[in-house]
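Collaborator request log, item 7. Partner lab (contact: R.S.) asked for a structural prediction of Ser/Thr protein phosphatase, putative to inform their binding assays.
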Amino acid sequence: MGEDVSEVDEQSPKSNLLKWIFIAVAVVVVIVIIVTVTVVLVLKKKRNEKYPGFLYLNDIHIDLSYNPKSNKDWCHSQTNNLLESWEFGQYNCDPPPKLYDSLVESLKTNVPSVDFILLGGDLPSHDLGGNYTFLKEHFRLITDPLEKLYPNKKIFITLGNNDFQENYGSFKTDLKDFENAHEVFGKWMNEEQSKTFKKGGYYYEDMPELKLRLLLLNTVMYTNTKSRVFNESLKDPYDQFAWIRQTYKEGVDKGYKVGVALHVPPGIVYYKGIPGFPSMYLEEFGKVFEECDFSFTISGHSHIDTLNPLYKANVEEDNIQYSLSAVSVSPSHYNNPGYRYFEIKDGVLQDYTQFYADIMMNPDSPKWEVEYKFRDAYKVKDLSKKSLNDATRYIRSKGSVIWSYRGYIYSQAEKYNPFFYCALRALTKEDVFKCSLDLNVNLSSIMPYSNRGD
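Returned to partner:
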């Protein structure tokens, strides 16, 4: 009996040690699990956190003369024997009020509240012409429903080339155009803002609660067009370059981040292959943006969803400033119509949600839905300067990502999409040719490499 007790006593310390080691390991495992779960929940909460935000609509080009029985080559006249009726618009045409009404209706669910509304310019249809009263009527067609939906919220404007009586305007008539636009948008401006807007079509807004100063620029005056002939003696039209530098510095001194909204971006417009500005303005604009560390830049005009460099990088690794170009409401560039909701915190854009309506798939009743969210699409934490550069590197890193990016450019629309939808039911040679003939497209354009053989 005594020997048995002695044996048990000798083994007890070892048993106790193993027991305590097991308990310690278990405690560590539990702590690790708790910490991991907590971190995941915190990160998930942070990712799902809702910030203040604003609605962005650009290149609406509302068209009161649109004919739903027209075809895409002439949008104002009924086409004989056309069975389809495109009540909400079609590719290659500016949209009827009915499409804009459906957009506003969708905002009630998709964007129920905003801190402000930003219009990126080009509210009337292309080549509208007409008089100043006609222009103001088109401005109010856009602003009145928004004002009703979001009462007591300011609506800001960056003038687009079609917001002038003559497309792109001219230095001879600019002041009349500024005054005309002010008659509609002046209700959301104070005295100082009205002064600079009437002088040069630009102004700024301070938003202390967002720690943001927003510069609303006029870049139409930097373009070189038939009506607005480039004049080398005009080094700084309406003193806007000097104003940008001064207003930026004053904003930073007040503790604000400074953001920029403009219509015509300075760089190459893809579909034209030419820069938005003459070289003199392009260089000066680049200098301003290199000097001023803007929090963000939002642009329109191109009608497509792209990231556009605002100046050249000295080396490949440099982080440069990009403008966020958004797809237009008008489907006139073979794009699906879209709009964007930006989230912002402490003057830095945190994310945006891109909404769109596929008017080919749902021509009778547009379904405005989420296309993508920037942070999820490009694996970044926000839309800061560094994050936008990280996003461009990510886009260039994988073929699947560049294809996603290309899909976003036109909001999932493409000129030849109808052919591919038709071809999904095409078995014979005759079926395929019928798809191309019915849609008036050339097979060699759709499949440029098909003649190389199998």
